[in-house]
From TrEMBL:
Belongs to the class-II pyridoxal-phosphate-dependent aminotransferase family. Histidinol-phosphate aminotransferase subfamily. Keywords: Amino-acid biosynthesis, Aminotransferase, Histidine biosynthesis, Pyridoxal phosphate, Transferase. It comes from the Bacteria. This is Histidinol-phosphate aminotransferase. The keyword Transferase applies.
Length: 363
């Protein structure tokens, strides 16, 4: 730390991204990326633009991408805001709507960046414990008097709240924004976008990083009332007006155009997820009912940390969180069928060795 860093940031605890290995070749199931490449149309379109337009600034209004997203979700152009990944969208939402009066809350077990943003912006953030079964108790959020952020499906549990439950939260907190982070909604749950007409305090956030196979392009978006979107644009144009580069804007447009590819990839991920859940349950794992592109698993015969480390030794990267409520669990992103077959095969080996070992030492 230099002597110039201001006091407010001296205790900052930055987000720790999942490992992006450079040397060794792993089966990479640690950051919930898509296992399949982007639509071939994306690749063709970017090829052309690299030669054509990079001497000019990108479109600060992200006009084509905003329009195609608005059309896709059947909302108005001025109800869509695009950010550099949903991380940027979430950061701008926090900056725009949370202060010492309006405050914020979110589940204790959820996407780690909510906590990091709260610390970075020095916000009054309340972490609301999930129930023992990792579900959200909506009573904790009724009339809570704070802005609310809920990932739905939640991460890393993969569990979903119903629209009925979310509406209760929205209705009882009309003076605060309720952010529903739908990073994983395309893997089998229902978007809250259809609730926007009824609830002007709702902000739906989604990303192109998971179901649109474009994590590296950094595209996220919010859909909300035009007044909320205007506020977010005010923030963006005060900080980072050219937030989506030209190539990403084109990639985003082409990806939305190729809806067949989008659906085909997501259906494959869902089928692979359900098959993997079944196989792991047969091996004695408890697996949450994830509606995402990852599963969250635990086994009585091996600790979460050991299972994670053993998978890693066998060339499979997953995610283990050092949080005491979930440290017996491992989060495994859904890869291709071949990759998940390998996970099952290696897991059988690991379990056999772990159970034998435990037997020998008399556990
Ligand atoms: C729940 C949730 N929200 C948001 C994000 C951020 O996604 P991105 O910034 O890539 O759009 C993630 C990433 O893993 C996530 O799990």
């Amino acid at each position: 730390m230099s002597k110039f860093l201001i006091d407010r940031f001296s205790n900052l605890e930055p987000y720790v991204p999942g490992e992006q290995p450079k040397e060794k070749k792993y089966i990479k199931l640690n950051t919930n990326e898509a296992p399949y490449p982007p639509s071939p149309n994306v690749v063709d379109a970017i090829d052309k633009v690299v030669v054509a337009g990079l001497n000019l600034y990108c479109d600060p209004d992200t006009t084509k991408l905003t329009k195609i997203i608005a059309d896709f979700y059947d909302v108005d152009f001025n109800e869509v805001f695009i950010g550099n990944g949903s991380d940027e969208v979430l950061a701008l939402i926090m900056m725009a709507f949370v202060d010492e009066k309006t405050k914020v809350c979110f589940p204790d077990i959820t996407y780690g960046f909510y906590r990091v943003f709260s610390k970075s912006f020095d916000l009054d953030a309340k972490e609301v414990p999930l129930k023992d079964d990792f579900t959200i108790d909506i009573n904790d959020y009724i009339n809570c008097g704070r802005n609310i952020i809920i990932a739905n499906p939640n991460a890393p549990t993969g569990l979903v709240l119903t629209h009925e439950e979310i509406e209760k939260i929205l209705i009882s907190n009309q003076d605060r924004v309720v952010v529903i982070d739908e990073a994983y909604v395309d893997f089998g749950s229902k978007s809250c976008i259809e609730l926007l007409d009824k609830h002007p305090n709702l902000i739906v956030v989604q990303t192109f990083s998971k179901s649109r196979n474009l994590a590296g392009a950094r595209i996220g978006f919010a859909i909300a009332s035009k007044e909320i979107i205007e506020d977010l644009n005010k923030m963006k144009f005060s900080i980072t007006p050219y937030n989506i580069n030209t190539m990403s804007q084109i990639a985003g447009v082409e990806s939305v155009k190729d809806n067949d590819y989008f659906e085909k990839c997501n259906n494959k991920v869902i089928a692979t997820r359900e098959r993997t859940k079944k196989e792991l349950r047969k091996l004695g794992f408890r697996v949450t009912d994830s509606k995402t592109n990852f599963i969250f698993v635990t086994h009585d015969s091996i600790s979460g940390k050991e299972y994670y480390s053993e998978l890693r030794k066998h060339g499979i990267l997953t995610r283990h969180f050092n949080d005491k409520r979930i440290n017996e669990y491992v989060r495994i992103s859904i890869g291709t069928d071949e990759e998940m077959d390998k996970v099952i095969e290696v897991t059988k080996k690991i379990l056999y060795e772990a159970v034998n070992y435990n037997f020998v030492v008399g556990k």
